[in-house]
Amino acid sequence: MKSKTALHSSTPLSRRIPNRLFALIYSAAISALLYRHATTLLRPAAPTFFSLFTSFSMLAADLILAFMWLNSQAFRFNPIESHPFPENLQQLLRLPEDFPALDVFICTADASKEPPLTVAATALSVMAYEYPTEKLSIYVSDDGASELTLFALMEAAEFGKEWLPFCKANRVMDRCPESYFGSGYVSFSEETEKIKEKYEYMKTRVEDVVEKGYIGDDYKTSVAAAKAKAFGKWGKDFTSLDHPAVIEVLSQSGEDKDAASCSMPNLVYVSRQKKLTSPHHFKAGALNVLLRVSAVMRNAPIILTLDCDMISNDPSTPHKMLCYFMDNSANSNLAYVQFPNRFHGINKRDIYASEFKRVYHINPIGFNGLSGPDYFGTGTFFNRRAFFSGPSSMIEPRDPELSPDHVVKKAIDDQAILELTHLVASCDYEEGSMWGSKIGFRYGSLVEDYYTGFRLHCEGWKSVFCNPSRPAFLSEMPISLNDVVTQTKRWTVGLLEVSLSKYSPLTFGRRFMGALMAHGYSYYAFGPFWSFPITVYAFLPQISMLINISIFPKASDPWFSLYIFLFVGAYGQDLVEFVLAEGTLQRWWNDQRMWVIRVLTSDLFGTLEYIGNHLGIYARGFNVTNKINDDELRRRYDEGKFEFGVPSPMFVPLSTAAIINAAALMGGLLQVVKGRELNELLGQMVVAGFGVVNSWPVYEAMVLRSDGGRMPTKITFISLVLAWLIFTLVSTIAKV
Ligand SMILES: O=c1ccn([C@@H]2O[C@H](COP(=O)(O)OP(=O)(O)O[C@H]3O[C@H](CO)[C@@H](O)[C@H](O)[C@H]3O)[C@@H](O)[C@H]2O)c(=O)[nH]1
Ligand SMILES: [Mn+2]
To answer: Which residues pair with 257 in a beta bridge?
Structure first.
């Protein structure tokens, strides 16, 4: 049903009915399992210390699994897909003046991990949006305070004067120059050759400066004198952790014109003040500074937040987002429109499950039928008003200039405006204010995105998930296993900071957002708790089998089929959902493997880090994901090989589990050969066999490979010793 005036559709997925039926059946099966646990615990046959320990561990593990299953039902209850109809916008937006202003925030934090050229490319890709340029402003926050990044952005402003008219005249879709020239389907006309040359010129300059690590005088004199003055701010006491605010207008709409004499959008560089003694709250702090600086300069009602490596892949995305914000029936409590995180350069089998299909594609559709998706931190268009308390309450900021209703009348380079932006970007500005607690992006969790979205939903705001077939944005993802699990380890710490706080979705959330939303949020917040059941299932049945103890029912026992049903049911449903979300069988297999790997690495170590933070052993930190990879690594990744390479302690539980599972499987087979009934061991054999198949890349990396990505011998050795120690310890206890 598509009316001529509707701005968007919403279609409930037909699988919601079978989902609910299956939930009923599955919950009956879980109850049966818990009943069995209760009876074995209450009437143990011949209790030993070890049998009690096993029964309790299995019960605790299964209880957590059941709780996580319950949480996941929130996404299955009422999945809804939504599509925008931008063609119907014309009725509302005829002239450029009719469009609401749009402020784009791009965050970068470390020029050594986030190449300035990438930041510049991201900025260019949004500067070239198909949107009235007088209404468009781009603010780049640089927490690394790098003059190299500033230089790259100056070059982008210059090159943009050619690039923007070129894209618009030729209806280019890839408006990130690097992707456009690398896409292979560019037809090289004279005009294209010329623009390519100009891009190469800019690229060489930026890369040259980055390689040298400083901006030579020849480069300084080549940029307009007024702009070159900015580099003078990098004085001798200037460090990335201690420096005054640097705010530079690099391109100004109305003043700067492109090669076709149209106005350029605003481009502003912002590096907030830093002092060693003031907390800066990582990315949330940076975003709040951008909220204030942009309020003083333009105060656009709509804000787009982007990570520095998230390029626009579709110039018409703002029109799609407007379909939601311009809809009068829905806009009053709409806080944000979330586009999925999609990645370029993923290998065919997606060995690290970088797609995060569940997090970025499947679950948000589930949330869409409730109050809307969680906030992913990037690719999100916000209603500025949402940062100032709930839809029907409003907290006025101290300075009236920061209020979402304030209308800016001066030019962005006006002296008074510039002075105020420096003030609101200073360290002390937030002291004694509600920034980070009741207004703006929220502090207190390393997953500021998830946490901010959660708090907005608690205040009564709604959100929408919009997933057009052409990806709206594309970003990069880590391609070495250590970078991958380091990234998710930060997420684990951040999630525990929410689940174990007074704002836990289970308590605070249930009170303010309804049970289904609260359980959906709990699915993530309590995600690190998977590490308990998975660790139990990765070690306990295996070690028990090695010392001749059965812990599952015999294969001939009807209870055995209950276990099979629970396992196949959960995995089967996951597989169906994955494939329906345009996944392949191979990618699904790797996705479930990475889930286990993440749980045994990121979740375990993240939990330790969280505890360490609380005991004051180490300081909380946001470890920025590395975005620079060498060619060798890229080649191995493209071939689909896991990259171990570095002796990371996080690999230890992984390889220890791999060793124990292999030993158990062989031990079990040996017992069967010696005449023990398979009937008794089948359950444990299946679990160990599953472990072995999943551990295949680990065995390869330990034994078969000799390239740079192999498992460091040190880790293999430590894991062997550890596996032996665990085995000895458990078998000693079992004899007591
Ligand atoms: O002190 C900081 C730390 C990070 N960043 C920026 O935050 C973004 C995300 O950092 P990244 O290292 O790429 O983390 P990821 O884990 O890849 O990012 C995901 O997870 C983050 C929360 O942990 C979210 O903020 C991101 O939007 C989301 O894409 C990057 O643009 C950084 O430059 C800052 O601006 N200031
Ligand atoms: Mn990232």
So the answer is: 263
Could you read off the pLDDT of 683-694 as tens digits, one per residue?
999 999 999 999
The pLDDT of 339-344, averaged and rounded, is 97
| Residue, of 663 and 46, whose pLDDT is higher | 663
Least confident of 36-50, 155-169, 242-256, 600-614: 36-50
Question: How remote is the CA of residue 478 from the centroid of ligand 2, in Å?
Answer: 8
What SS3 class is residue 266? strand
For 200, phi and psi rounded to 5 degrees?
Answer: -60, -40
* Residue 601 · residue 534 · CB < 8 Å: no
Best mutation site among 107, 112, 341, 476 for ligand 1 pocket (most ligand atoms within 8 Å of CB): 107
Burial-class residue 664 by CB neighbours within 10 Å (0-12, 13-18, 19+).
Answer: buried
Cβ-count burial 463-502 (b if 16+ within 10 Å, e if not): bbbbbbeebbbbbbbbbbbbbbbbbbbbbbbbbbbbbeee
Residues 118 and 86: beta-carbon distance below 8 Å: no
Any idea which ligand is nearest the CA of 624? 1
Mean pLDDT of the chain: 95
Over range 413-442, report the average pLDDT.
97
Reported ipTM: 0.99
Residues designated catalytic: 143, 449
Mutation test residue for ligand 1: of 142, 283, 293, 375, the one with most atoms within 8 Å of CB: 283
Q: Which residues are CB-neighbours of 560 under 8 A, at least 6 positions away?
A: 552, 553, 554, 682, 683
As a whole number of angstroms, the longest Cα–Cα distance in the chain is: 89
For atom 4 of ligand 1, which residue has the closest CA? 283
Residue ranges with CB less than 5 Å from ion ligand 2: 625
C-alpha torsion angle, residues 472, 475, 479, 483 (rounded to 10): -130
pLDDT tens, residue by residue, 503-542: 999 999 999 999 999 999 999 999 999 999 999 999 999 9
Report, as an integer, the average pLDDT of 593-619.
96
The one-letter amino acid code at 453 reads G
Q: Which ligand is nearest to the CA of 240?
A: 1
Gap between the Cα atoms of 403 and 247, Å rounded: 21
pLDDT digits (tens, 9 = 90+) for 443-471: 999 999 999 999 999 999 999 999 999 99
Pocket residues: Cβ below 6 A from ligand 1:
107-109, 114, 141, 143, 282-283, 286, 307-308, 377-378, 446-449, 487, 490-491, 494, 622, 624-625
Tens digit of pLDDT for each residue in 373-419? 999 999 999 999 999 999 999 999 999 999 999 999 999 999 999 99
Question: Mean pLDDT, to the nearest integer, of 359-380?
Answer: 98
pTM score, two decimals? 0.97
Sheet holding 266-271, edge to edge: 246-251, 266-271, 136-142, 102-108, 302-307, 380-383, 334-338, 462-465
Enumerate the β-bridge partners of residue 140: 106, 269
Residue 431: both structure tokens together: 């002291």
**Rounded Cα distance, 594 and 358, in Å:** 12
pLDDT value, residue 1: 44
- For 248, the token pair is 């530079």
pLDDT of residue 331: 62
| d(CA 322, ligand 1 centre) in Å | 26
- Ligand 1 pocket check: which of 110, 624, 626 to mutate, most ligand atoms within 8 Å of Cβ? 624
> Do residues 19 and 76 lie in contact, with contact meaning Cβ atoms separated by under 8 Å?
yes
Task: Check if the beta carbon of residue 136 is closer than 8 Å to that of residue 129.
Answer: yes
Ligand 1 atom closest to the CA of 624, numbered from 1 = 12
Relative to beta strand 311-312, strand 334-338 is unpaired
The helix (run of H) or strand (run of E) holding residue 125 is helix 116-127
